[in-house]
Amino acid sequence: MFQNNKSGFQPRKTIAALAVGTAIALSSPSVLATDGKASIHGHIESVAGTDLNNVVITIKHEGKGIVRTTTTTEKGDFSLKGLPIGDYTITVTKDGFTTVSEEHVNINVAGLVFDATMADTSNIERIEVSGARISQIDTSSTQASQVISTERLNLLPVELNSSAIAMLAPGTVGGDASFGGVAIGGSSVAENGYMLNGLNITDVRKGMGDIELPWQAIQQTEVITGGVSPEYGRFIGGVVNLVSKSGDNEWSFGGKIEIEPQSLREPYPWINNEGKMIQSDTTNYDEKEINLWASGAIIEDTLFFYGLYNPQSGDGSSDSDTNYIENEWERDMWFAKLDWEISENHSISAMAFDNGATYQSNEWRKDTDGNFNKADKPGETLGKDGGLVWNVQYTGYLSDDFTVSAMYGHVENETGVPSGTPELSRVWDNRDGYWVPLGDWVGSGDSSTKDMRKVYRVDFDYVMGDHTFRFGFDHETLEISDYYEPHGDGWYDYYRAAEDGAAGLPILAGEEYADLRIWGKESETENQSNAIYFTDTWEVNDQLVLNLGVRASEFSNTTGSGDKYVDLKDQIAPRVGFTYDLMGDGSSKLYGSYGRYFQPVSPNTNVRMASAAYDIHHIYRLEGVNADGTPQLGEKLRTDIVADGTVPDADQLFNNQAESMYSDEIVIGYEQQINDDWAAGVRLVSRELKQSIEDISFNYGMNQWIKENYANDPNLNDYLVGGWFPTLTNPGRDVTMSYDVDGDGTKESVTVNADMLGFPDSKRQYYAAEFNVSGYVTTDFFIAASYTWSHSYGNTEGLVRSDNGQADPGWTTSFDYPELMDNGYGNLPNDRRHNIKSYGIYNVTEDFSVGYNFWAKSGKPKSAFGVHPEDDGYCVTAISVDGVCYGRDWYGAASFYNDGVATARGSLGTTEWVYNLDLNLTYRVDLEDAGLLTFKMNVFNVFNMDGIEGVDEQSEFDSGTNNPRFGYADDFQTPRYVKLSLRYDF
Fold this sequence. Notes:
By secondary structure, the protein is mainly β. It has a domain at 15-136: Immunoglobulins (Immunoglobulin-like). The chain has a 22-stranded antiparallel barrel. It has a five-stranded mixed β-sheet with strand order 9-14-15-12-13.
């Protein structure tokens, strides 16, 4: 019998109709759509259960008037791909059988399963049982995803951004407060992919989330958390797949204004030095956003337009013990989309938007008593970011069985930050064991960047009997340019020696010294990646489907000289799975999958490692400090040259024996459609980071190799390397590189074995059990809920590092020196063992609804970071080889030690559970022919809970003295705030 789809959205539909539509949208079958288009597939049979071939399936887009037609195979199956999302009328016809027709059937980006039963007209008694069924379970897919439209998000208290929407799905946790984002399936926040209409819109340089978007232009968001097909690559986490709005035959216009008033925002809590919680009201800001849009048909049924203008602005101030800042920003975004249905078999669409922003801040430095004169000239910082984004897509239906799509796109992001006081050096004072800024300087330096992504891909779909083949090719080029110049003489840091010979200097305990760091960069580098993929969806029989796929890719990175220093080929990634329809009626499935995923070397690494950078440290005795904070320098104690301004040799930057960073995923799951209103599922997940790529300094191992191979050379000591001697490698693997050891102008091939290097293998393991259910408590009350148990442990979080707030993909302090990894194995920062989520919509009346979003999560692991003792762990080996332990003397309190005692990562328990409830109130006023008004209020953290999200894990200062704030809460959940909006559609 026919199951009502309940998912269409019409301009005059009530809130009740919208909420009812959420059920299918939140539990849609998952069919991959790398082009941002939708698909439909299904099975047609007679009431006697016989497969029907040559049945004509006709679908018509109710908004655009587009018609697509296909016929069923001998087994009664059919499929149509490359469809614009939206509501369709589906008609099923065959001579001698009753016609089945359904209106307002919503097809979203995850696809639709539509099955129909046709009655033989010769048997009148069976005509009444003919009809269609829309399944919530796709028995051909092993992919785990969730789709929700923006209209329905408007009925939930959820921020419109990729991270907040992804957090609705099981298996996702929020990133660290220092850089945000979302971790999917145990990955770090820099390991996900973000797509819009088939274009990769992941942040170009660091991959930490997507670029800034005009969210009013987004129609649907799909969050893919596992079992990803071979069409997707360049990530080892999850995928957020977005589809924009587009025009229909009927012209429509509208506008919305949204404000976030300071008066309805609670102050942030914080812990003072006495351990007491107080409320901080030192930050003050207001934001507003306007959206104006129009859409319609330039040529009816043929050429469609959607346009959006989205200005945003904000201003505010912040007050601290050391400075007072006033700031303001503006972002005037626009978005446009054209869709041209050339014919029934050919279509072209084009999208473009600009997300450019400008901002300005004025900063006044306070004196030691916390006073400042606002009449003084402030340090002014001006900035910009953003750029133009666009793509063009073609879809062609070459036959009923063969479809082709092609896309070319371009993403640009440009920043420029001339900041503060270019004539004044940055000065930080650490002589008392904690950092204090001295002087009136504002900003550390001037910087500018320009990053571009150029993408093209082509995909083919071919149906042959029981097999549906999908194959294609995709290419990306990333162009990264970067410039930085420090202010004044450079950066000054002041220290007081805690012991004789501190930091390896000829200095006595209690004496003071200054580190003048002069550094900058100017570079242009490039990343290239290519991939081909193939997948076969094979219907072995009526109940068993096999998904057999593979992706082959290659990645390369260049230095600032244009030479390749990373060139990884033959990355073969199998993606295979099965589904089994246990009941044989499409109401349940048992499924499993295995997939391998490769992660490119981040373009951020090009900037940090392979560019024309200079980084020089001049260390002086500190004779005194002037009133303006500048130093009185004495004897120069040492000069450390980390980078001399030349581009490093490409053959020295990457281990010749290194291979790609990759992760393996194994999933087993079960889904059950309980009845027309309820569905539930369980999924067991294992994800293992099998290999990472890290920047290491292998000076200890290199010097051991030199001593062994040049033992009789009288110039042996001249050949030894000191300090930072970097390369990229897989930790735990031998390193082979070309290096001129003896300085005779000829490079030798040097192989340093893993035992000499002293690094452990990189490890990250994630296990999870996910349980989810969704359905209707009553006809007016829909809910979705999930519980996830997970465990994430190892010695690396991945491309970024949360426990020291290092948003520096591919270039964190992990594995810099072997001693930094001592005691580094344990529960990782993203290990939230228990996660409970629930959200839903209750229709009080047809025009008034209440939406909620509740979550509760267990605490995060706690660690201790202190100074590495000389007589423990790898420092003993380091000192025996080089006479110095760099992880101690250069990095200070960055090791897993507490007051000299080894303290394993994450071994100090966890923070407390955190609970949160958000509410949404929506009221609509139908003005009939004059349009539609919608009033909305989102209240986030209704009860103003102050759960602890993180604690100060610095057990010691770099000087070795104890940190009195160790263990104090330093990050809380966001306090209560309110967003108000008024929307008008006509």
